[in-house]
Amino acid sequence: MLTHLDSQGRANMVDVTEKAVTSREAVAEALVRMRPETLQLIQDGGHPKGDVFAVARIAGIQAAKKTSDLIPLCHPLMLTSVKVELAAEGTDAVRILARCKLAGQTGVEMEALTAASVAALTIYDMCKAVDRGMVIESVRLLEKLGGKSGAFKVEEPKAGDE
Hints:
This is Cyclic pyranopterin monophosphate synthase. By secondary structure, this protein is α+β, with helices and mostly antiparallel strands. Helices cover 28% and strands 28% of the residues.
C-alpha cells in the first residue's frame, strides 16, 4: 500500500523502489478569467511586458521541472516531455493545458497541475497592472495514463445532464 505515512504515522516520501517503470502521462488545465480588454491586449501583442503567452509557457515548463522542490514529499522526476498550451477561450479567458510525460515509477499528475497553475499565475503577474480583477479557476487534472492505477479521464457533463 502506498502512503505518505510511515509505521509511526510520520510523513515520508512513498517508496517506489519496487514499482515497475512504465510510460506515464498527465494533462491538467487552468482557466484565467479577465476583462475582454485585457485578453485583447494579450492577443494583439501590445502588452508592455511582452509576449504574455510565451512567458507563461516557459514558466509552466520550468515549474513542472521543479515540482519536487515546491510540493513536499513529491518525487523528483526526469520528465521526458512538458508541453504548455495557451489559448483564448471566448472573449474573456485564457485556457491553459499542461501535458507531462515520462517513463518512470511514479506518475506526473503533480507536475502537470503545477505547470498549469504557475502558467496561470504568470499571466496574472504580467497583467495585474491592467486588470487586478482576474480570477484563476478550474485548476484540475483532466487525464492520467499509465501506472498501476490505470487511466483516468474527466467525464464532461453532456447537454441536459445537470
